[in-house]
Amino acid sequence: MKINIFDSKKELYDAVALYVIDKVKSNPEIHLGLATGSTPVPLYERLIIDHKVNHTSYKKVKSFNLDEYIGLPRTHEQSYYTFMNNNLFKHIDITETYIPNGEASDILAEAKSYKELLEREGVDLQILGIGSNGHIGFNEPNTPFDSHVHIVDLAESTIKDNARFFEGNLDLVPKKAITMGIKDIIAAKEIVLIATGKAKSKAINEVVNGKVDTFVPATILQKHPNVHLYLDKDAASKL
User: Fold this and answer.
1) Cα(203)–Cα(200) distance, rounded to whole angstroms?
2) Which pLDDT score is estimated for 88?
3) Residue 116 clears pLDDT 90, i.e. is over it
4) 237 located within any domain
5) Which are the catalytic amino acids?
6) Helices 41-54, 9-26: inter-axial angle, 10-degree rounding
7) Considering the entire predicted model, what is its pTM?
8) Which residue range is the domain that position 132 belongs to?
9) What is the pLDDT of residues 23-34, one digit of tens each?
């Protein structure tokens, strides 16, 4: 596990963007695993600027998103389908993108289909954030490490964390999601985890120094051979 600590968020995101861009340039057919939420937005902003200024191409890149809310229309401004299009896809030349369908009439069949897609295609570089409770994707505490794409009931802490995207109203936050399982995530050849702020410091300390335990799902990253942590000073403050 390689730990990169930066004095500011700007330095962090400049560095992680350069890392991802170099990966895309060196492998124009790279398969990217992508995340949503506030954490990756500054990364996506830099990828867009680089695409417009330096013309880094994503025409042959394939992307696979971690998760999606269940029961939220794809057209809803807080669906991850809309999020990805607004924050990245429509601003670059990528054409092949995959996001679980939270509106599927048979959500279990959708989970099976997405699992098979991931197994068939594989992910070269997975971008992750981390929840304050140590979740990755929507794999909440006590999710088995051998889990594949599955349906989850979101933890109360996660619902509270996400309420800021829904006018602060807990009642508006979806309570279920479809997510890559932990085994799907760690199947990626390489993982980049980004964390900023003191609210993530406890989880980051567990990831680096804690016992590998399903109670903190992200601790499984200790077992992965190629993980890069990009942290600001606040997120790294308990290390």
Assistant:
1) 5
2) 98
3) yes
4) no
5) 67, 133, 135, 140
6) 50
7) 0.94
8) 2-232
9) 999 999 999 999
